[in-house]
Amino acid sequence: MTPRLKGIFIALAGTTVWATTGIFISYLLKHYTLQPLTLAFWRDLMIATALFIILRFAQPQALRISRQDVPFFIGYGFFGLAIFNSLWTLSVKYNGAAVATVLAYSSPAFTVLLARLALKESLTARKLAAVTLSLVGCVLVAKAYSLEVWRVNFVGILVGLGTGMAFGIYTVAGRWSSKRFANAWTVTAYGFLFAACGLALTQRSDTLFTMREGSGWLILVILAIGPSLAGFGLYTLSMRYLQASMASLIGSLEPALTAIMAIFILGETLVAWQWLGSGLILAAILLAQSEEFMK
After folding, report:
1. How far apart are CA 295 and CA 248, in angstroms?
2. CA angle 11, 64, 18 (to 5 degrees)
3. What is the chain's Cα-based Rg?
4. What DSSP string runs through the chain?
5. Nearest to 251 by CA among 130, 121, 157, 162
6. What is the pLDDT of residues 113-172, one digit of tens each?
7. For residues 242 and 235, what is the distance between their CA atoms, to the nearest angstrom?
8. Residue 216 and which of 87, 112, 209, 277 are 20 to 30 A apart at CA?
9. pTM over 0.70
């Protein structure tokens, strides 16, 4: 298996696992007394804690970083993860879930541009066409073709686009870090630790423990150490073999996969346009990858 093909499989596996996080989060917010930012804080803290415990016994060398690495992790965790999670929650509040999803998955477009500026990755016609197909597919999957869901204010649009940009920064930073750190789990562990520190600034003592049910905490733990940890870890690992723009395009499969899972888990349905959108997202990935394989 070539490194590029290995990266594709890793990214697809991470995205598939990642797609289940929406199911968990939706269930927690609907059935338990838990604020979105509080959920994000506990999830990030649990992911970081689990990783530090695992690495402490399995790969203690992965926890060793230098003082010079701290500024990177502050930016990587705070800007790439904490702000992304915060903006995502605010975007859902201002725009509704459908428009917020589309605006969040503007991230491949931002990633392609940021990767060009920061990593000097090539900006080709195929990449631009793939980004366009991916965005159109996300619009269809999220049902954002309805004029009703676009009745949002100017601030809401800016917050939504900020979500896509924040994730683009996270992706590009992850690609850069793959050249600096030998272990992808080092980046994931410290990234989530600093993200939890950033989200802690949004919490109050009376909001941290509003969820009283033990079953809710159990689901939250499963969300953190299951799909969240595995998804972010595999996505970060994939960027050792793929360009950041390619990994981001594969990651844009998440809304389509989430919608398909919702059919079986939550009893939701997909209309014809959503199936078409899923196909366009897949076509975007194949188009982008075809250029690499032809080299």
Report:
1. 20
2. 20
3. 18
4. --HHHHHHHHHHHHHHHHHTHHHHHHHHHHHS---HHHHHHHHHHHHHHHHHHHHHHH-GGGG---GGGHHHHHHHHIIIIIHHHHHHHHHHHHH-HHHHHHHHTTHHHHHHHHHHHHS-----HHHHHHHHHHHHHHHHHTTTTSGGGG---HHHHHHHHHHHHHHHHHHHHHHHHHHH-S-HHHHHHHHHHHHHHHHHTT--TTTTT----HHHHHHHHHHIIIIIHHHHHHHHHHTTTS-HHHHHHHHTTHHHHHHHHHHHHT-----HHHHHHHHHHHHHHHHHHHHHHT-
5. 130
6. 777 776 676 777 877 887 788 778 877 877 777 777 666 667 777 787 788 788 777 777
7. 10
8. 87
9. yes
Token digits of residue 53: 């415990």
Residue count (the chain): 295
Q: Which two tokens stand for residue 282?
A: 């897949």
